[in-house]
Queue: 2 jobs
Job 1
Amino acid sequence: MSEVIETAGKRIESMVRQELANLTEALEAGQSERLRSYLQMMGRFHRYSAGNVLLIGSQRPQATRVAGFWSWKRLGRKVKKGEKAIRILAPIVVRDKDEKDDTERERVAAFRSACVFDISQTEGRPLVKLAEASGEPGVYLESLQRFVKEQGIELEYSTRLGATLGLSEKGRIIIKSGLTGAEEFSVLVHELAHELLHQRDEPRPESREICETEAEAVAYVVSQAIGLAVGEAACDYIQLYRGNSQTLLGSLERIRRTAREIIQAIMPEEEPVRNWGSISEPQNVEAAA
């Protein structure tokens, strides 16, 4: 049985590598639409790893809400007969006992293949629909401002920034006064991403262009997650690939991790998450890869 699990896991890992190669080739050819589609998927599934977002997008590009077979059943829905599962990676967690202090520690020993299904593949009880943002961030802007301050970051508004919409100065964010709610939200997420990604102690990309595109990608993903319309100009600005495919994957994972941190902070816990990454099987599918 363990050999079967290992073989299935390796097959899915191979699919991740292939999809990453496809994304890399598309970016090298100047096809930014492929990356925009990927980031839209990341906005819907921010709780899943970068690799699993690639897998979901490659197998069912129009997916909006995914969950395992039994999760759908608990929600009063069932998978339609004959539907093909979306294969993703789930971790196999083992517990090691520390003989020194007699404590147990969990670690990921390997990955296995797991199955999820999109809502379009199910039928049954209607799900609660969330109100769309309709181009305005609503309460999310206040939540975002509060989260910024909770991080110990000063938030200021100024009329003296000229053409600049926002600045990040390691512990201080300055936003241009007079922006619309949607603009302010997007710019504030962008500058907060700089603080979380590029002002912390972790190594930052050497290229300023990569730093800017990572921050813009985080703003795009978070805006997508709350249902905020994002202009095409912002989409076209995102050109991540600078180097080999592993560099790209590392950047995408940094974007996913940062976007998830912000989204979880500004969305109430009781609110059904738009991307449905929170609905998973007990084996912690969303943490895979």
Job 2
Amino acid sequence: MILVKRRIEFRDTDAAGIVHFSAFFPMMEAAEHEALRQVGLSVMQPTAGGGHRTWPRVSAHCDYQHAARFEQVLEIAVSVTRLGQTSVTYGFDFRCEKFQIASGTITAVCCDWSPGGSLSKIPIPDDVRAALQRI
């Protein structure tokens, strides 16, 4: 598990100053990116031939338990909840002070993108799999 902190910005909130439900999805993605950086990976890893490995999302889900407000600091715990042959599912646990705010998941598939624009699903390479197991 990797812990990421994020202050709630004004753009994340509705007219009442409460985090809008849709704001949790970019927060999950940003927390995923930070977790990947912490284990030496990126969502766009260069590959031979000028392409890159990328991780298109195939599923995203979020459940909400408690309101969070402008300028509060969220702690987002990121973990890998499932590591398949070609996909990874991340779990996200949002907390603020003593409250469970929300929980969610994102599933992404390992793909190679070539400079010609083709996208091909591939098995997760062993070195990437080892890094993901540290999340």
